[in-house]
Amino acid sequence: MFSLINGVRARTFVALVLFLFVTVFNSSCSGRKFNLPKKELSLTDSRGNTVKVTAEIASSDEERNYGFMNRKSIPDGTGMLFVFENDRTLSFWMKNTPHPLSIAYIDSTGKIADIFDMVPFSLSSVVSTRSVRFALEVPQGWFEKEGISEGSRVLFADGTALRDYSAER
């Protein structure tokens, strides 16, 4: 009888330890936070009007892969700029992203090539129509509301070109 009780206790203890491990591991992965640098961007429409957005800068593979996943909110006037080392066709999806977003694909000169709306949680790829260097995600409808369209220009608010961004922190 004593060995049966010890066996039950041992199995219960092992199950509890495994449960705690899985819970801690899952919460650390799903709540991943990056301390991304923030920069103000200036976007200029075809009439020369300028609007600003405060963007988190995602420049590493891990930061770019995680993006806005699992965010509870994305305030208006904010976004995320994805910086790549060279021009390429870019493809984004909305896995684990609960907020509708709009994405602008931007070439190395800072010109917006494409703007697309993206559906929350969608695993469908949203692909740029040509080679670009950057992508800017904002709450869905922000570009339209601010009069920003394909052909608009993007640079850092201090006048620095996007292509001159250095990821050194």
UniProtKB/TrEMBL annotation:
- Renumbered to this chain, the signal peptide range is none
- Pfam families associated with the record: DUF192
Q: Which domain of life is it from?
A: Bacteria
Recorded hits in PANTHER family, A to Z, give: UPF0127 PROTEIN MJ1496
The name this protein carries in UniProt is DUF192 domain-containing protein
The organism encoding this protein is Treponema peruense
